[in-house]
Design goal:
Shape: elongated
Order of helices and strands: EHEHEHEHHEHEHHHHHHHHHHH
Helix content: 40-55%
Strand order of the largest sheet: 2-1-3-4
Number of helices: 17
Largest sheet: 4 strands, parallel
Radius of gyration: 24 Å
Structural class: alpha/beta
Number of strands: 6
């Protein structure tokens, strides 16, 4: 893990705090600190950092640093250092704080993966402010004896790890994403013959860990294990059951199609119609998940379908175009070949948005 700290030199307490952190973290993670915006921009543009840790508020330089982190694909966290306390907000409220809030401060805080409070009072103030629901309390060892500098560093490192274990699909490289989908397809089909001779690329421990965290969060562990057995690869011994992560406010655990629609249907076409209606509802509430695609793929593979009648039924319910796009998503993810699809796939901008909804389901 690689962390970049940004602070302003004129804030002596913050400078001492960052100096302590960089010294204590140096043995466990790669860490660097900068106190000017040009230096921050240079670091983010020339090297990859996992996390930018911003110390303080109200300077436009912090908002600009956060924007640079976003462009670089670096997640950022913020320690306000008490600068969002009510009495600070009231100071020169109309002349200074309100314009800054409107222009950038609220947006910068909202975009942080987590806001780090240094005490109970600051935490309560941040909760009341309501700008970001992801708040961690880690006391400052420089100003209180209630925590040691080693414990403070450990808690902060754990928070960084929690940030990096959130929405891991976004962090995967193309090889890891391809391996994930290959394993899920193998688990779904239960037969290597459907993989057209594709071999699983070699994965390192970090890449395996990302895959395991993703399937844990998306409730696909059993399917992945089956896929590993089907492909005949060595099962990675990595326990992610206790991994902590942040989730978006609208996140809900996956509700399976089978649990939602039941199993009392007179024909497979009726079951599929109920399935597509359920998936459309999940789409409208932005809860469509990878697990739903897997269930759909299995349903299509394992049952005989009257394709012409199904198309007529979908058209009557105004679901034909939506279903065609779902077929396009299945094809793009490599979960189904067009030759066995009951409805012709459509590939357009709306298909891409469906894919983005599914892959960004855990995005903060």
């Amino acid at each position: 893990m690689k962390v970049l700290h940004f602070y302003q030199q004129q804030h002596d307490l913050q400078a001492r705090y960052v100096s302590m952190l960089t010294e204590k973290m140096a043995g466990s993670i790669e860490v660097k600190a900068c106190n000017t915006l040009p230096d921050i921009r240079n670091e983010l543009s020339t090297q990859h950092y996992d996390i930018l840790h911003i110390h303080g508020c109200w300077s436009v330089k912090y908002a600009q640093a956060a924007a640079s982190a976003n462009r670089a694909g670096t997640r950022y966290v913020i320690s306000p250092h008490g600068e969002l306390e009510p009495w600070i907000l009231r100071d020169r409220q109309w002349q200074e704080k309100m314009p800054k809030t409107i222009l950038y401060q609220r947006q910068t805080i909202q975009g942080a993966y987590v806001v780090i409070a240094m005490g109970t009072m600051e935490r309560e103030s941040l909760i009341k402010l309501g700008w970001n629901p992801r708040i961690e309390t880690i006391r400052n060892a420089i100003i209180t004896h209630s925590i040691t500098d080693d414990e403070m560093t450990r808690q902060l490192t754990d928070t960084y790890r929690k940030v990096m274990d959130s929405n891991v699909y976004e962090l995967m490289n193309e090889k890891t994403r391809h391996a994930l989908m290959l394993l899920l397809k193998a688990g779904c089909c239960g037969n290597r013959n459907w993989l057209n001779g594709e071999q699983l690329p070699e994965l390192n421990v970090s890449e395996w860990r990302q895959i395991l965290i993703y399937v844990h969060h998306e409730q696909l562990e059993d399917l992945l294990k089956h896929g590993i057995r089907v492909m005949g690869v060595k099962d990675p011994i990595i326990d992610v059951s206790n991994v902590k992560a942040y989730f978006p406010e609208n996140y809900r655990p996956v509700k399976s199609i089978a649990d939602a629609i039941g199993n009392q249907f007179v024909s497979e076409n009726k079951r599929l119609m109920a399935t597509f209606k359920f998936l459309h509802r999940q789409h409208t509430t932005r809860q469509l998940a990878m697990a739903h695609l897997i269930e759909l793929s299995r349903e299509i593979r394992e049952h005989d379908i009257d394709e012409e009648h199904l198309a007529e039924m979908l058209d009557e319910e105004h679901l034909l175009t939506f279903t065609s796009r779902l077929m396009g998503v299945l094809a793009d993810f490599g979960l189904m070949e067009e030759g066995i699809m009951p409805i012709q796939a459509v590939f357009d901008r709306q298909t891409e948005r469906l894919e983005e909804m599914i892959t960004n389901r855990l995005k903060i």
